[in-house]
Amino acid sequence: MKNKPEIIKEHRALKDVALTKQLIRNKILIKLKRQKEEDRVIKSRKIKEKLFSEKAFKKAKIVMFYISVVGEVDTTEMIKEAQILGKMILVPVCWDKTIVACLLDNKAKLQKGPYGIWEPVVKKPFPGENISLVIVPGLAFNKKGNRLGRGKGYYDRFLSNIPSKVTSIGLAFDFQILPRIPSTPTDVSVDKVVCA
To answer: For the domain that residue 134 is a member of, what is the CATH number?
Structure first.
């Protein structure tokens, strides 16, 4: 059993990590806001080309994408093109502090969810163990796949509950790739990061 000084030291370390994470989030959010829209579009296209040439993507029959918000790597065209290629597309829906993978067909009506993120009006949950590939958003990544999200832990919980055989790929702009990402035991990394 840990003694009191060890517990205090551990608590301080976690607090330091939380503060560092918040500083990184603030810096990256500013950079995302300041990026010119034409740069975002050009880089998003390059990221799409790289992603679509990945072996894991080519093999995947069921792909879970995220629906991008303003400033993020744009996934709109990726989703449309993946549907044309015959892939089944899933998107995250927030339910009671967790993410549920739901089917997104090309005629689905969308509405804004709890955090202003678009999600299907009609929710058709899909079992996580049948997903081939998960495309993961993030504010920052390092080359090892460590990821910094927006701080709610939704993707960490989701990724920790799907089978390890399911590949996860993060999408990012080059300025979102950092040498080091502070992490805690509950943080889940991605298998690869595609950036431009």
So the answer is: 3.40.50.10420
What predicted TM-score, i.e. pTM, was given to this entire model?
Answer: 0.89
Distance, CA of 75 to CA of 108 (rounded, Å): 16
Q: How many domains does the chain have?
A: 1
Structural domain boundaries, residue 125: 4-195
Contacts 24+ apart (CB under 8 A), 109-115: 110/67, 115/152
Residues 81 and 48 sit within 8 Å (Cβ to Cβ): yes
Selection from 126, 133, 141 nearest residue 172 by Cα: 141
Start-to-end CA span in the chain (Å): 47
Place of tokens 């081939």: 132
Task: Please state, in angstroms and rounded to a whole number, the distance separating the CA atoms of residues 187 and 146.
Answer: 8
Residues 32-76 pLDDT 10s:
999 999 999 999 999 999 999 999 999 999 999 999 998 999 999
Residues 122, 108: contact at Cβ < 8 Å?
A: yes
